[in-house]
Amino acid sequence: MADVQFFGDAVATIAGINIGGTTTTVVGGRDDGTILSRWSTPTPARDGERLIRSVIEAVRFVAPGAERIGVAVGGPLDAERGVVTDAPHLPGLRNVALRERLAAELGKPVILHHDAAACALAEWRWGPDAGRDLAYLTCGTGFGAGLIIDGRVRYGAGGRSPEIGHVRYRDDGPAIFGKPGCFEGFGSANALALLAGWRAPARFLGATPLHVVNEAREGEPTARWALRENERAVGAACALLADLLGFDLIVLGTLAVYLGPNWIERVIAVFREEALASRSEACSIRAAMPDVQDRSALAAAL
Question: The whole model's pTM is what?
Answer without folding.
Answer: 0.95
